[in-house]
């Protein structure tokens, strides 16, 4: 199958960036123009929850009228930490979200995916670090608060890896994802990071496929130019692993569409 005939969806985008963006019709339109140029048929805005007050549903309604051929969804990416469950449930109730992405961005207040704190990796034993990360991810899955697991193996972002097989570290978390009926996203941002690899790796994606875990796709674009970035690679990977359908969401109800 030629890769350029896939049905593209981008469910992980940040119009508000890291707080510098604005949720205007113009800004959202730049994301949608970029999506249309990449032949994306459905896009979800999934800003970080700390910028939630910047989300404006009026602007979303306006761009839906302006781009009638594109399905536009409202999601949110929430940082999971054990103990935050009640706070997250309150955040989830503030808008009629189509989906919630749960992501682990920090361990014991260390923002391990942030370049400014990369030196902290040196004080960790990689084996312990991966155990800890996937334990928190398992708790994220068991919390029942989310629809999608964000960048499943983001702990590899700077290329620090344990000696053993990552699949062994991730197994319990992936089983918890299956049990919780969650969707895993294939996130192309890893290709733009030092690890130079899609999240999750092919090895972990194959395990998800064996366990019949649904997947969706996201670019993690913080600028319009990154919408749909490297999607040919992501869809080709999915197809090679065996996936023929991907998940989409409306009002937190999942359905599967053929790629
Ligand atoms: Zn994230
Ligand atoms: Zn993100």
Write the layout of secondary structure elements.
Elements lengths: L7 E6 L11 H13 L2 E6 L11 H10 L4 E9 L5 H8 L6 E5 L22 H17 L5 E2 L16 H14 L3 E5 L14 H9 L4 E4 L12 H11 L3 E6 L2 E6 L1
Parallel strand pairs: 1-2, 2-3, 3-4, 4-5, 5-6, 6-7
Antiparallel strand pairs: 8-9
Helix pairs in contact: 1-2, 4-5, 5-6
Bound molecules: zinc ion (ZN) (2 copies).
What does this structure look like?
This protein has one domain: Metal-dependent hydrolases (TIM Barrel), CATH 3.20.20.140. It has seven helices and nine strands. It has helices at 25-37, 57-66, 85-92, 126-142, 166-179, 202-210, 231-241; strands at residues 8-13, 40-45, 71-79, 99-103, 148-149, 183-187, 215-218, 245-250, 253-258. The chain has a seven-stranded parallel beta sheet with strand order 1-2-3-4-5-6-7. A two-stranded antiparallel sheet has the order 8-9. Strand 8 and strand 9 (253-258) form a beta hairpin. The model has no long low-confidence stretch (mean pLDDT 95). One zinc ion (ZN) is lined by residues 77, 103, 105, 150-151.
Summarize the structure.
Pathway: Amino-acid biosynthesis; L-histidine biosynthesis; L-histidine from 5-phospho-alpha-D-ribose 1-diphosphate: step 8/9. This protein has 259 residues and is an alpha/beta fold.
Instruction: Provide the number of structural domains.
Output: 1
CATH superfamily: Metal-dependent hydrolases
Give the spatial strand order of the biggest sheet: 1-2-3-4-5-6-7
**Cofactors, ions, other ligands:** zinc ion
- The number of helical elements comes to 7
Average pLDDT: 95
Percentage of residues in strands: 15-25%
SS-based structural class? Answer: alpha/beta
Pathway: Amino-acid biosynthesis; L-histidine biosynthesis; L-histidine from 5-phospho-alpha-D-ribose 1-diphosphate: step 8/9
Family: Belongs to the PHP hydrolase family. HisK subfamily.
InterPro entries: Histidinol_P_phosphatase_HisJ, PHP_dom, Pol/histidinol_Pase-like
Pfam families: PHP, PHP_C
